[in-house]
């Protein structure tokens, strides 16, 4: 990004400091610092979700390497089971990273979370398969996935809070949209990598060494992200809150005691994001190839096209939420999913590649109404001294229970019911819960962070 005032993510120092805008701090922030904050937040989330994409998109290969079985669906279920188990530690991570982020600062928590994530991801690339060490292989895979889940718990929430606290008051939605945009970009590159590997390598080469390549790339990217973060100051809102009084002795305790209603509303609002994100953007290639019989490379290609449009829609949604309010946009997302999810999954059964691509673009666009608004909505719900904790606990609780389990539940629902539309019904139910939660909340976009 350049220093031009025409950029939607730029603002002058005077704008940042003007009390009339409702910012939480009177400290000035220059455009160079904001660019560094945006870059660091983008890279951190990119690394995290590139890894999740690689695991999800290469699930069939990973199943063959770590869970060989005469029944491919059984191996796939165990692979997604490990994926789901790694999310069980995310609420624990949410409590710990939230505590650290509200006590010692957003920057420190984010710097350590990306380092932990990078190390665990790189180690996965070095793991031997089941053929070499038997049951030790899936156990080591699970252990590293648990470390990843723990570290990821602090990344999305911390980056969102960091960006919102650095953003001009009238552009908090747009700035926070950088986080889901980086998430989608990580998935996009993971999809491209998976498509390239499956298209260029034989099954034997893919299972022997090809699947390791995406995980090896995490090391240099993660170290770059950490380096940028260590060169930043903490957010103006956090610094000012710290100077105005000592931080909460127990941010999570204060959250549970004084803000538990908001916590429940936030967790409910996250439900559509949790299920929708993993069903539409992570599980979908596996669904298309394993359940509907679409060629694996074409499945990845369809998801890649949808992700390209998704990134653009995310920023549009961020701007819409700044103009019309978080609550209105989030409610619109839930209503659209209630009405169109099952018909969209029925259209996927046509097997027509163009129809499949268009359906995925539609589902992705609907999801951006939720995903692009949620980071600013959650960050604005909680006061500065418990913001990281409130975001991290609510976001990771819903993702642990319903997000990480979504591919497993979708596969299990199809296996038990014999109905390939089952994931669509599951996603529609999540939308209903989110609709009720958001409807019970208040508008936050035009209120000061403090």
UniProtKB/TrEMBL annotation:
The transmembrane segments are 49-68, 74-97, 109-127, 133-153, 174-197, 209-228, 263-284, 299-317, 329-347, 353-370, 391-414, 420-442
Annotated compartments? Cell membrane
- Region annotation (Disordered) maps to 1-27
InterPro entries per the UniProt record, alphabetical: H+-coupled_symporters (IPR051084), MFS (IPR011701), MFS_dom (IPR020846), MFS_trans_sf (IPR036259), Sugar_transporter_CS (IPR005829)
Stretches of Polar residues bias are at 1-10
Q: Which UniProt keywords apply?
A: Cell membrane, Membrane, Symport, Transmembrane, Transmembrane helix, Transport
* Membrane topology, from the record: Multi-pass membrane protein
Q: Which residues form the Major facilitator superfamily (MFS) profile domain?
A: 37-446
Q: Which family does it belong to?
A: Belongs to the major facilitator superfamily. Metabolite:H+ Symporter (MHS) family (TC 2.A.1.6) family.
Protein name, please?
Proline/betaine transporter
Organism equals: Glutamicibacter nicotianae
Per the record, the gene is proP
């Amino acid at each position: 990004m350049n220093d031009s005032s025409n950029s939607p993510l730029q603002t002058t120092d005077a704008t940042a400091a003007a009390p009339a805008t409702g910012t939480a701090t009177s400290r000035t922030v220059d455009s160079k610092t904001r660019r560094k904050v945006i870059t660091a937040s983008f890279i951190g989330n990119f690394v995290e979700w590139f890894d999740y994409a690689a695991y999800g998109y290469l699930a069939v290969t990973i199943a063959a390497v770590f869970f060989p079985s005469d029944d491919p669906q059984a191996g796939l279920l165990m692979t997604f089971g490990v994926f789901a188990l790694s999310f069980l530690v995310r609420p624990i991570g949410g409590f710990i990273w939230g505590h650290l982020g509200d006590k010692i600062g957003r920057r420190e928590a984010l710097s350590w979370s990306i380092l932990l994530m990078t190390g665990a991801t790189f180690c996965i690339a070095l793991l031997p398969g089941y053929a070499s060490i038997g049951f030790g292989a899936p156990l080591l895979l699970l252990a590293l996935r648990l470390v990843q889940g723990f570290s990821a718990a602090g990344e999305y929430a911390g980056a969102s809070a960091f960006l919102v606290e650095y953003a001009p008051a009238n552009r908090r939605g747009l700035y926070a949209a950088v986080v889901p945009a980086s998430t989608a970009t990580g998935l996009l590159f993971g999809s491209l990598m998976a498509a390239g590997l499956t298209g260029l390598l034989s099954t034997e080469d893919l299972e022997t060494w090809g699947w390791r390549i995406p995980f090896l790339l995490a090391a240099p990217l993660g170290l770059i992200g950490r380096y940028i973060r260590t060169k930043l100051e903490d957010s103006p809102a956090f610094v000012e809150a710290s100077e105005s009084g000592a931080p909460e002795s127990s941010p999570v305790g204060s959250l549970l005691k004084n803000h538990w209603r908001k916590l429940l509303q936030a967790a409910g609002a996250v439900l559509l994001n949790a299920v929708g994100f993993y069903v539409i953007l992570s599980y979908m290639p596996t669904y298309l190839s394993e359940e509907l019989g679409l060629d694996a490379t074409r499945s990845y290609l369809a998801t890649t096209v949808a992700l390209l449009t998704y990134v653009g829609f995310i920023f549009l949604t961020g701007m819409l939420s700044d103009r019309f309010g978080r609550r209105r946009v989030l409610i619109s997302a839930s209503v659209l999913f209630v009405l169109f999810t099952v018909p969209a999954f029925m259209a996927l059964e046509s097997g027509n590649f163009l129809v499949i691509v268009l359906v995925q673009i539609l589902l992705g666009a609907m999801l951006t109404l939720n995903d692009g608004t949620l980071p600013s909505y959650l960050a604005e719900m909680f006061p500065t001294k418990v913001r990281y904790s409130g975001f991290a606990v609510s976001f990771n609780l819903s993702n642990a229970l319903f997000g990480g389990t979504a591919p497993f539940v979708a596969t299990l629902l199809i296996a038990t019911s014999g109905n390939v539309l089952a994931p669509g019904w599951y996603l529609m139910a999540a939308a209903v819960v989110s609709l009720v939660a958001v409807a019970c909340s208040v508008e936050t976009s035009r209120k000061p962070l403090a």
